[in-house]
Amino acid sequence: MNLERHRRAIERLYTDRVTVYRYEKIKNPVTKETELVLNTVYVDQPCRLSQRTLAANGQTEAENIIQYETKLFIAPELEIWQGDMLEVARGNVTRRYTAGEPFVYPTHQEISIQRKDWA
Fold it and tell me: What are the CA-CA distances from residue 20 to residues 12, 31, 74, 84, 88 (Å)?
């Protein structure tokens, strides 16, 4: 199997863009305390969103909770950690997700991502 050709075929489907953020421990030089700071890891990387399960409608009298899970396909050399914050743009719509554990293959990686939002 020609992995390079297979990878090029997969990457032709990357019509979305993702920016990856990660919390990192930074020591504050003034207070000398360690703080968690949200840092940008990757900006505007090509990717592909794929809906993994249908949205579950948690309608109650007081609220309508929307929960569903999707999968992100992205280049294998990008290091994305479980718990990273992802901002994915598809067309004019940008949504925020949390990364699950990535599964890395020679041609791509698949990451289960979760979005929870209020309707």
Answer: 21, 28, 12, 7, 9
**Both tokens of residue 34?**
């360690």
Tokens matching residue 99? 């990364």
- C-alpha 16/C-alpha 93 separation (Å) is 10
Q: What is the CA radius of gyration of the chain?
A: 17
Q: In this structure, are residues 113 and 69 in contact, taking their beta carbons and an 8 Å threshold?
A: yes
- Quick check: 23 pLDDT over 60? yes
Return left, alpha or beta for 11; rule: phi > 0 is left, psi -120 to 50 is alpha, else beta. Answer: alpha
The answer to whether residues 21 and 39 touch, using CB atoms and an 8 Å cutoff, is yes
Model pLDDT for residues 41-53, shown as the tens digit of each residue: 999 999 999 986 5
